[in-house]
Amino acid sequence: MTYPLAAERALAVISLKGQMAHKFNWLIGVILGGSSLLVGMALWRHLLDDGSMAGYDWEAMRAYIVISFVTITLAYGGAHGQVAERILDGMVAIDLTRPVDFQRARAAEYIGSMIASLPTAAIGSVGAWLLFTPPAPASALAGALTAVSILLLFPLSFEVVYLSVLACFWTHRYGTIMFARESLVAFFSGVTIPLALMPSWLQALAWCLPFPHFTTTPSSIYLGRVDTLGALGLIAAEAAWVIGLWVAARVLWRHAVKQVTIHGG
């Protein structure tokens, strides 16, 4: 008997095991991630001192930094280089002959590799909690809705990365695309600085993009900067981006396949 999504589950498990097999890389990720977390804490402690900026005091900022560390660790933890390489060297043509949906297969692999980054996020978060004791969520419901927002980050992160990888069909290079994508995510998600500290026009621009849902949405819900209705609205918007980007990726893939046909005969 063939079970639904059996191939995707198998691909996710293989990707997870592959990422966990590289123990040295995992250890480096823990060290670098923990170091960036400590630097962020030290910087904002100095900037805020006993004051506040845009409604963020030191207590709130401690939680914000931990949440941003968790979300960006997960978002950057997904493996995507191999897909870009297969597009650039033309080997993606072989994938077209396989009886597995290309997009769903890549999603399974990516999310499996994201799961491999959970220990890094967990270790960093526990360390930060022990050293800096950030506040608990505004309420039990806020904590649960924060978890929902972070879960939606898994497909959302994949779709942002996948769309950028598909651009390789036209650009024939990936390094610049990857740098641009990671820069946009870091800036417009609120990882670099909270969106509340940006000019109003820049905040408006950010909220026209999916990136604020990487960090600003879960942290705003966690800290109670939005009420329950506002939190549900943010989650609904995040879910809408997940659906919309999935469909957009389908459309772009159909055009990308034509590039393979043109160049590959």
From TrEMBL:
Membrane-spanning intervals of the chain: 24-43, 63-79, 110-132, 144-172, 184-209, 229-249
Keywords on record: Membrane, Transmembrane, Transmembrane helix
Coiled coil: none
Cross-referenced Pfam families: ABC2_membrane_6
Alphabetized PANTHER family for the sequence: INTEGRAL MEMBRANE PROTEIN, SLR1174 PROTEIN-RELATED
Protein name: ABC-2 family transporter protein
Species the sequence originates in: Glycomyces luteolus
